[in-house]
């Protein structure tokens, strides 16, 4: 197709609307009215013969055809921005990161000094949230997000797997000596979610019905569960990579090598259109190199 026949204004409007999942925010970015963005999208839909957006209640979502087109168009405009503005991008020296709390506090924060030493020109702004799963209907809240889940992110986003969610049993040192076999863990209160313990006992080949389990406190974070285990309140299931320092120092003990794969992972996510921006590329490459392979 000759380039002069491409509906470039309509594609530009679609690219912005797909990134933001919002006609209003696309209009603000492009300096257009919402009606103008809507007109461009309608023109493009008529040309392609398929709807690109669908209303879901009060929110907007890409259709299947919209997702396919967005994957190509958003990436293409991202490459154009990188080619034209790659040097000036570094003038924007602040990289915003939103992360699930446990990853931020127990993996990312202790390592950020190494990133800053490599990239002193970039200022980091880190925020934590408990609502960063793999279901994303709106635009991202930061340049880069660390999310947890099974994956399946829409094509408008680039997602990179960082760490798999593996859980191991940990206890306080004074409780570890009495644990000779995984079945002995039933002698302790089981801190944390019952479903996780179900999976751990199943992996150990042990039947552990609720009637055999002692009452135990439940927390909404691995950090709190690990602290309770270190205080001797029972056994907890945690991701060993987040508590390597506590395990190495002997504050927590893993009495058995058994770990259970929960089928989830922590993902580094950013807009596909931003994949070539220097500050995002620098952080992405550093993070992927820092995780164990």
TrEMBL record:
PROSITE patterns membership: HTH_LYSR
A GO BP entry: DNA-templated transcription
Domain named HTH lysR-type: residues: 6-63
GO molecular function annotation: DNA-binding transcription factor activity; sequence-specific DNA binding
Transmembrane segments: none
Keywords per UniProt: DNA-binding, Transcription, Transcription regulation
Nucleus as UniProt keyword: no
PANTHER family: GLYCINE CLEAVAGE SYSTEM TRANSCRIPTIONAL ACTIVATOR, HTH-TYPE TRANSCRIPTIONAL REGULATOR
Family, similarity comment: Belongs to the LysR transcriptional regulatory family.
Annotated protein name in UniProt: HTH lysR-type domain-containing protein
Source species of the chain: Inquilinus limosus
